[in-house]
Amino acid sequence: MTRYIIYFAIAVGTVSCGKKFLEVVPQGSLVATTTRDYDKLMNDPAFYFSYGGGGLAEAQLMGDEVDAEADLFKTNGVTRPLYFTWSDTVYQHITQLPTMLRGELGQRYELNKIINEVMSSTEGATAQKSALRGEALATRAWSNFQLASYYCKPYNAGTAARDPGFPIITTADVNIAAFARGTVQQTYDSIIRDFSDAIPTLPLRQPSQTRMSKPAAEGLLGKVYLFMGRPQDALPLLNDALSVVTSTGAATLYDYNQTFGPGGSFLPINGFSGPQSPGQDFNNTKEAVLSKVFGSGSYSGNITGNNGLVLTANTAALYGPNDFRLLFYTSNKPNGSPNTAGRLRKYGVQYSRWGLQLPELYLLSAECKARLGDLTGAKTDVESLRLKRMPAADATVPPAIANDQTALIRFIIDERTREFAGEGYRWNDMRRLSLDPLYSGITFTHTMFDYSGAGTGTVYTLRAPDRLVLRLPPYIVDTDPGFVQNP
Amino acid sequence: MLFFSTGKFGRYVVRSTSQNCQTKTLLVMKLTTLFMLVATFHVAASSSAQTVTYAGQAIPLQKMFSIIEKQTGYVFFYESADLNDTRPVSVAFKKTPLLTTLQIVTAGQPLEFEVQGHTIFIYKKKSPEKPDDSPPMIDTLGTVEPGEVRGIVFDESGQPVPGVTIYARKARLLEVSDEKGVFAFIKVEPGDTLVFTSINYESKTVVAIAGTLMQVRLKSKVTKLQEVTVYNTGYQVLSKERATGSFSKPDMEVFKKRTGSQDIITRLEGQIPGMVITTGNNATSANINGNGVVTQKSTIRGVATVTPGMTAAPLYVLNGVIVPDFGSLNADDIADITVLKDAAAAAIYGARATNGVIVANTKSGARMQRIAINYSGYFNYQGKPDFNMVPVLNSRQYIQTAREIFDPVAYPYAGQTYNYTPPHQRILYDAYNGVITRAEADRKLDSLAAINNMSQIRSLWYRPAFTNNHTISASGGGSVYSFYASLGYTENQSNSPGDHNNVYKINLSQNFNAGKSIRFGLNASLINTVTSSKKPIAITNRSLPYQLFKDASGNPINMPYMQYYSDSLRQILQTRSGISLDYSPLTDMNYTTNSANLININLTGNLTVKLYKGLSFVGTYGYIKMPGTAHTFSDNRGFTQRQTLLGFAVAASTPGGTPTNYLPTTGGDYQTRNNDQRNYTVRNQLAFEARPANGRDYLSLQAGQEILQQYGENTSSTVMGYDPALGTYALIDYNRLRQGVFNTVTGYGALYNSPFSVSTSLSRFRSYFGLGSYTYNGKYSLDASIREDHSNLFGSDVSAQNKPAWSIGTKWQIGRENFMKPVKWVNDLALRATYGITGNSPYVGAATSTDVLYAINASQSYGAIAGDAFTINSVANRKLSWESTHTLNIAIDYTVLNRVISGSIDFYNRTTTNLLNTLPLNPLTGYASVPGNFGEINNKGVELSLLSNNMDNPGGFKWTTNFNISYNRNKLVTLSKPNLYQNIRNYNVGSTLLEGKPLQSMYAFKFAGLDNMGDPRIELHDKTVTKARDVAKSEDAIYMGTSVPPFSGGLSNNFRFKGVSLGVNMIYRLGGIMRRPVNQKYTGPLAQSANFRSGNVDVSFLDRWKNPGDEAHTNIPSYVSDNYTSYMRRETEYYTLADINVVSQSYLKIRDITLSYELQPRLLRTLRVQGINVYLQATNFLLWKANKVGIDPEYVEVSSGSSFIPPFKHSYSMGLNVSL
User: Fold this and answer.
1) Is A43 in contact with B766 (Cβ distance < 8 A)?
2) How far is A225 from chain B (nearest CA, A)?
3) pTM exceeds 0.90 for this model
4) How large is the ipTM?
5) Where do the domains of chain A lie, and which CATH numbers do they carry?
6) Residue B636's beta-bridge partner residues?
């Protein structure tokens, strides 16, 4: 008997669990191994949709195409007036990070992970892996360009090798303690290199416009070149991008003559939120070459929002009376009562696009052509957009402008404002125009009107050139003592 | 067999094994057994008597004993070898009294017997027999001087009794009898009385006789065996005299009667030196699956972890098995609790032992015990919350204040479209905008000022809370089987109207002896919690003071302003959507109903197999299952439901047309939630026990392996448009609604809820352990333990976990050394020293060694148009291990003054290294922080416990005092270097983690008065005075102390006279500081949020700075209506977090006071019951507090100063215990 008991005890006592016992992956979690896993990582909505914060939310407040109504503007958070008045210091509190910077840094880790790991993933074809790596590279380049437009001086070939850049982050490792800012030249070099490496690997069209395609990368690199003052390098890329996009039909323009016409899809116009356009629908990618959407409507704590922002009188005057784009504005206050001064606020766009929109691609192409002397080509491009935004009679560029290179460039840049006012695009234009001989002597002002309806207000002037660059938040500078703060 | 093992140690083993081996069986069997037993209890009880009836042939003595056991319920205790030389007995008894029976059967045998309680001890007769009747030789005592009182104390057998305390009442002198039982008083007048007291003998009072040798004979106390305290660690049972580690046990009498709470931990308060029960908000641990009662948080010997997700709570062990908490335990079923405090005590729990371990064991039946039935029940009444603790403005002050601070320029009416505008605010705007006249506005405001809603809040939204608890239990046992079974019922009525909470509890513990070598135990408990509730509003006295809920004729009042739409917008939305936006809370509360049915099944099995000589196999198998189902029905008529519907309503395209709605507007949402927890523990160990050196020494060795899994699962499903009467529901297009519906009346509607969701959590441990003890000569003990744990909590890198926990402990019984013999006033004295390492393991998913992805389902995530996706859930962090704590403990156990006073003093030094904390990262890496190991915390402390039997007059007045005090000094020795950005004042004033300071250290600004705008100013360390925001650096904040009181403890006094006893349990905490509640309103509209928990302000708002010059007599900053101006101009935290608002937290409370009455034996005999005890208890009396601002520190969040409303002022209980 005793012997059996001993056997039993030994049997029970040595019940050991296989090694697998501790190697369990929790439900809903997984570790990336296959190419398909990386493909899904590239699908992360964080890359293309920022519902609460992010995008050009800060730039929205800094563009000089808008003024503000103090009563509707000031009560929503304390950082908004600091951006609006181009204050030297916006963030004082320790761990505050501007929303776009926070979002981009978080995604940078993911992008670097894809770039560095996808080629050794399993199951996928090499071309597929290269394309995924290319998408991540191009997305990283795009992201660096956005960050440079806040924290680096506008690209100036003469000083770029000296101006402090934005650190080039290429590894996914949380334990790196220090980064170097490098120079603006290095930052732009890395942007161009990433795009250039990516372009040959990318497909002409992606199943979803949220994913980086070849024309998107080309269009964006073209934009970078143009903003660097290199239209000759930009044009071939933009030409190719436009022809691919139009031939594949990946993106097409809404014709406002139809959508606002009888029975049009943008109708009826809601008294509180405007036309039923993509401005209300963050899922709409019809005009997107590369779709990236951010919440640009009213303040909700996280996002800075467009509360209290109104078009400046000059901006409002850029629109012709029949321009359908005016329908995205109202002179009513949010409660429905009229703004007696008649100033317009953009109530029809709750969600703005900051990837690459087809209208911008036309305008980038037009501007390149105009700057390189192809005035006819430029006129065609800008009219391609205008014809979809207003009755044909109004769409034509007046001959006096169309035949004058400077006037045409200005007209195209104004067209950028007409298309994108109040959505943050103007900020980067202000930066590059400050170096553009065509615009020499340009100054930027903001008016904070005492209350909606008043004609009086306080005027703030941007302290150029320093405040065309945002200071890095103290969180970044203090963590990395080697960092040079912007002046 | 083990139970009747030989030698003295066998007695301890009896206790240990019976407590260690509890097991479980199938529920059906359990229930059947239980009900059968309950039904037969009465019969069984009355048939048991203390007489013996027997007639028959000669039988061996051993058999005779078992017959007597069966008939009387008494238990025999003997060494088998002693019966070897006995002869069979041939006797006949008929209702012969037990004592007579025993005399007859042992007559002529080489045996003697002794009855102690219900146990009969059989001893071999001593030989050669000593002459024990004669008093000792008195001639050796010398002559007695005249006037001197001298005497000798001896026992019934004539042996001198040393160590008896003798107290001369008039002379007030104290003496102790020496080794020969001799005592002497030089100056005691004749006629004085002497009181003789001793632990083992009954007290005696005699008149002092001078000049002649007194002879005092004391009677042994037969009622109690010298009590052997045992510590159950869950792995082994140790006698107190051998234990080297630091253990504490509560007074189970106090525990049993603390009916103010059903929580096990709360009932320990003030009883365990070094254990501090957390009070205030967030003081309870999450109760897994919501089964049972919540477990109060507690810390043992100071906090040694800094990570918010890491627990500082002790490990909970029930019947040897680790459990998530003690939430589902019937307090009446608990037999015994042991708290393990130092490394030698707790290291056997390895990676989770750092915060101490609380081991609870439930009751079990003893073998050879007649069936006993016990009832215990109580009713505890708490009443309604004590709103007076948080004073706010009354209606008149409120309206006056609202007028004063109304600012239509900073907050223009035009900007209020999407804001909350309460009635008073609306009136003020209307007057300002000229909609109504000033006079009209005044009249309206005056009428609001005249209304006080407090009585409606108290009567409509609160009701008295009480608890009603009953437990009936039975226990008993025979030679092969013993059991304990209980049935419990608890009714909890909360403060909240409409709540129901009933708990049904069954517990069955059984032990089987299968043959000689196998013992098997099963312990099974089932707790069923059935709850239901409605949705009354969460309201406090901080809501608008004038808003009534019911009008004069009893109709519910509509308050549609309780949302974020202006009146005009609301009208438009209602019209366009066809959905009413009215809101009357009294009606609305009935539109939501919740119900839940939760079950907690806990099974523990124990198996002991004797293998060879001292070697045995011990298996412990635990299984816990907690299935639960909950239902919520939210009727679409409810306010929040209607607000959701509004987001999905599309206005009619033609005026007067019918709006369309994407969601069903009838019925409601019906949600079913299922949760389950399945935990198992398998522990197999080999134990070896030996008694070398002819039984003088003792050796024990154990080694084993253990695996543990904790798996939790929650699923939830929801249908919409559910009709409870028909059971029908509507199918909706989730995919489309999830993506968002545009152009609804509110612009955009998105469905957030899912038709189905699931979440699971899994943690696993695999451990190996070993234990060893050696006691030499009964005087020197050595303990050692080692354990290695591996878990899945760190991802796959198990090698980082090769960090064994171990301990070593020694004990020296100095009191047993010969040189201590002459020191009569010391009865026992022992010195203990232990050292060891224990761990603290992080939570599931705290860190991983690879990037772990999280799946995003496209159709579930609105805006996810690109399709299914992954994102990074947690980033790779390979350098992670658990925290380890090195503990040194040095202690003294003492029993002195004739065993009147006993206790221990412990000194400890715990250093926790490899602290897990959020490691700040360079934000450019993409992450702000990851969990990492760094830093060190030290806890040093002293614990003193003292039990004193102050008075113990036989049959008369008894008074015992139980006192403990502990001091803990906590210091964060190192922490990761703070980043430079932390070198601003927020880091000190806002942080509780600072190198060189205790955890929860508190910093404050040095207040320098208000300036002439009413803005607070502070003095910086360079003596400059400023009010500028963000100028203060770390060094400008001054250290005030710690909000964790270093001193804490309890003082209990128990007075007993005949059957009446009075117990007063006090607790105290000393030396801590706290921020006092101050006004927090300095900007923004008076009422900003559409809820019933805010809107009113602290009454001190009235004393704020209003006009220049006020700074001379107030420190409360001015109110500046405009947020922006207020923010840019000043920093109001310079006042709210200023040194002048830091006060002492020290206090002393009577936690509870209990008056009980035990029915006296004569009455009991008449009633034919074993015992009846009734008691009354009242709780929570603040005796003393150090602060002068009228705050009970238990109702303040000490680090922020925010006060909260006590759920009750005092609670009162009435309880009854009956034993049959």
Assistant:
1) no
2) 26
3) no
4) 0.89
5) 15-255+354-446+461-478 (1.25.40.390)
6) none
